[in-house]
Write a structure and sequence with these properties.
globular; about 45% helix; eight-stranded parallel β-barrel; about 15% strand
Length: about 375
């Protein structure tokens, strides 16, 4: 096994937490706020996470959603790399079918050169948007999202990252730069290290594939909670030791928001629930204010959706959120919790991570 890559994957629990804690940022944009402000908040959250010992900070790829400013993970990660020093940075994830594998290898090779040993490459096979937008991204009317396409795309990307296409392959003379070819060229001193690959999923397909390939797995519990335990069980049952990992390692994305008062936490998470309701209804927009969310006249069907959505968001005071996260870690056996705090304001999200860090006694690092 590559011990260095295994060490990059596994986190260390801090304070009184039973598992490592990390951050997933959707770079949400609220009404009355700008994308510039949302991206600046992302920097603030990454710095806070680094200073309090969170293990990693990931951003996700979404498209054509006014309330989510994370359409370009590699660009955002480059910005974050310039404003942090230690925390791992990564994609949760890049939607592989939207891009040519060589482009992803070049982008994340560049990020690895910018922040050596700190970059994760999380990959998903969903489009991160609706079908029409996916067609525009891929410049095709045929959306290759089938199970038969993703493993081939993944294998090609891995070959580019490792620079090891076999002789006679059409891409044998093509190199992703920055990358290992610079270490093997005459006079080369570049490290041949490359970002570890994670597979992301919300069902069993990627869980099984990650297990068979011996890769780390990240499950989207925050929007597919009913599938969490079955998917993690499938991952562990399918797992085969690899050069990357000698044992399974799975994190889960968790929607959680802490506030100084329970009522305020409820007000904040309701904004995200209304935003999701509008997205699922084909009406995506900016994240509404707490006042609008509280005043919204939900129909019985809408209320049912919102209630079912909120039940899977851990929210309340810091102690309540800590208890909820501890229970979730115990129930799922997750090796790491990646917390996403969705609310209208950046201030509420920052305060949530601060309160969670305090609740677990995470150290204040220099």
């Amino acid at each position: 096994m590559d011990e260095n890559q295994g060490d990059e994957i596994r986190g260390t629990a801090g304070g009184t937490a039973s598992v490592p804690l990390s951050v997933l940022d959707l770079v949400t944009v609220g009404q009355g706020r700008t994308a510039t402000q949302a991206l600046r908040t992302g920097v603030d959250i990454a710095r806070l996470a680094e200073s309090r010992g969170f293990h990693r900070y990931w951003v996700a790829e979404h498209h054509s959603m006014p309330g989510v400013a994370s359409s370009s993970p590699a660009v955002i990660l480059a910005h974050l790399a310039a404003h942090t020093e230690r925390i791992r940075l990564g994609s949760g994830g890049v939607m592989l079918p939207n891009h040519a594998p060589l482009v992803i290898a070049e982008q994340f090779g560049t990020l690895e050169a910018m922040a050596p040993g700190r970059v994760d490459l999380g990959l998903g096979r969903a489009p991160g948007t609706d079908g029409a937008t996916a067609a525009a991204l891929r410049r095709t009317e045929r959306l290759n999202e089938g199970a038969e396409d993703f493993p081939q795309q993944l294998a090609e990307l891995t070959r580019f990252l490792d620079d090891d296409f076999p002789d006679g392959h059409p891409y044998a003379r093509i190199h992703a730069v920055p990358g290992p070819v610079q270490a093997t060229s005459d006079g080369g001193v570049q490290s041949a290290a490359r970002p570890p690959i994670w597979l992301l999923g919300s069902s069993g397909f990627s869980a099984r594939l990650a297990g068979v390939l011996g890769l780390p797995f990240a499950f989207a519990h925050h929007f597919s909670a009913q599938n969490t335990v079955p998917a993690l069980d499938l991952y562990r049952e399918s797992f085969k030791p690899s050069a990357v990992l000698d044992a399974p390692y799975a994190l889960i994305g968790v929607a959680a928001l802490a506030a100084d008062e329970e009522r305020e936490a409820r007000r904040q998470v309701l904004t995200g629930a209304l935003s999701m309701l509008r997205l699922r209804s084909g009406r995506p927009g900016l994240v509404p204010t707490p006042e609008e969310a509280e005043a919204y006249a939900f129909s019985p069907m809408e209320r049912e959706f919102v209630d079912s959505w909120l039940v899977n968001i851990v929210h309340g005071t810091a102690d309540e959120v800590r208890a909820g996260l501890d229970d979730l870690a115990k129930r799922t056996g997750a090796d790491e919790l990646m917390i996403t705090a969705n609310a209208h304001s950046g201030e509420a999200r920052l305060r949530s991570y601060e309160l969670i860090a305090d609740a677990y006694g995470l150290p204040v690092l220099g």
